[in-house]
Amino acid sequence: MGALEHVRGLKFKFERMELTKEKIIEKLLFISALSSILIVFFIIAFMFKESIPALALGGDFFFGMTWCPKHEQFGIFPIIVTTFVVGLGALAIAAGIGIPTAIYLAEFSPAWLRNVIKPSVEMLVGIPSIVLGFFGLMVFVTLIRDSLGGWGECVLAGWIILAIMTLPHVVSISEDSVRAVPKGYKEASLALGATHVQTIRRAILPNARSGILASLILGMGNAVGETMAVLMVIGNPEIPWIPSSILESVRVLTSTIVLEYSYVVWGSMHQHALFAIGVVLFVIVAILNLVTTIAIKGRVGATTVIKGVVGGR
Amino acid sequence: MKETVIKLGLCMVALISVAVLFTVVAYIFLNGMQVISLDFLLKSPNYAALEKGGIFPQIIGSLCLLSVCLLFAVPLGMASGIYLAEYAPENIITKSVRFFVECLAGIPSIVIGLFGLIFLVYYLGFGPSMLAGGLSLGFMILPWTVRASEEAIKAVPRSYREASLALGASKWQSIRSVVLKSAYPGIITGILLGAGKALGEAAVILLTTGGLVTYIPHSLLDDVGALPVYIYMILTVVPASRDVAESYAFGASLVLITMFLMISVFALFLRNRYIRQMSGSRG
Question: Which residues of A, range 23-82, sit inside 8 Å of B by Cβ?
Fold first, then answer.
């Protein structure tokens, strides 16, 4: 009897141990999950701590027209404007190629062709940005210099390279949103005698609009945050200005950080200003991402509502 | 007639991206092949006379940085993914974890580089080093590993868990020996995609490691060279003749793209093998 009791006791102990082990594992997993929050907090805290002196300049920093570290002038307005000029141009090209591609993939493409196009588009994301920038420097910059004149390193070259980098994002989300349009819409339109192209224009695209818009905003976020590729092809003049033609060399936020961090005096206003540029970038991209999320959620919400109504009938 | 024209037009536009991809890869291959030699691959760089050196420390350095990055991001990302998929109750904490993972994914790489510079290099005193560079890369790809793990685990059918639990396995035992086993292909593919991104990332490494490195690192706190930084440096900083710098940049780009393609092919291979194994054991 004693022995049996003992065994039962051991088994109980063992089960208790297993239970604690399970609890510990769960706690460990939970702590790992918190690490992302911790990292983001640290990033925000350190970036702000380093940039407060420059952000405190207020209007002189955000709306100052001259960036000239030698003379202690840190106005980033021309750089911000240029960043948006370069980003928006790239986006326009990416939209011009990406949206038709998405429509073709979702509506017309035979399976074998889709299996060629889709992986190629996705592989474009994988090409290291420095390699793409180098390619741009060797091909597009030379081409622009020889055919259009100027230095070649210019806004136009930046547009082309950034468009290549944004294209995959635009294509994949736009295609998803074209596919997400309920089949009933298409069938109804076709049944009314509309052709396939008319159906796409009148029934499918209007319903996919918010998703396509979201893909463009997300693409914009990527274009603004992109560093190495754009750095290689836009020239980066000593003193940044707002370009008056697409053949002028310019500077964007990211390239300013990379070019100047190496010789910055640690603790100087110049260093704080570079970190403040980082904060500005962070905030711009965060806002664009937030808008994307809301746009995508909005679309999903609308589709579910429509499905609910149709199902209710 | 009009329909056909529009369809053809769309098709032509869709093929532009394919054309761009092939042009870039072919251009780099054709120009890079002329530089590739055993000396180029196995010698240390000579920044005073570029044509006498190679890129060996940069190749090894890139692999070292990648290892540190994965050693940090994979365990942490998988643990987070497992928690989010299997344990997390739907409350404010879980929601904020998801939100912050998305947040981290959205931070531009240059900002992560700046953070690595101020926090790891200066504040923690690592200096420009393999540890600082690798960890910064780890911060960058952590969201990819979290998402990949969570999605792959969620895709495992519910019945697998129920069967395992019914056999008397505990929750963790079921996760470890049943759920994770079926989720591995998805997790590995996600991680390798992140690894490819980390391998080609230049901005983060540029800010957190030194630039002109000629040796192989011996410890975590040693400075380390990387291929993307090497390409940037020889094109902008190093005083060399334009032709030599360009041809060497082609060579280094070719090596970088080849490494990236090898990772991608390896990912596909692992995935297919795993899928075959799974279907084999089921049959």
Answer: 25-26, 28-30, 32-37, 39-40, 42-43, 46-47, 50
In a domain, B165, yes or no: yes
Q: Strands, DSSP E only, in chain A?
A: 67-68, 73-74
Q: Does residue B3 form part of some domain?
A: no
| CB-CB under 8 Å, A47 with B110 | no
Q: Would you state the pLDDT for residue A1?
A: 54
Domains observed in chain A: 59-312 (1.10.3720.10)
Could you tell me the pTM of the whole model?
Answer: 0.88
Residue B100: its H or E element: helix B92-106
Distance of alpha carbon A272 from alpha carbon B22, whole angstroms: 42
Alpha-carbon torsion angle B145, B196, B19, B265, nearest 10:
-90
ipTM of the complex model: 0.89
Residue B24 forms part of a structural domain: no
B-chain CB neighbours of A47 within 8 Å are: 111, 114-115, 118
Q: Examine the pLDDT at B217 and tell me if it is beyond 90.
A: no
Residues in B closer than 8 angstroms to A130, CB to CB, are 200, 202, 228, 231-232, 253, 256
Tens of pLDDT along B198-207? 998 989 999 9
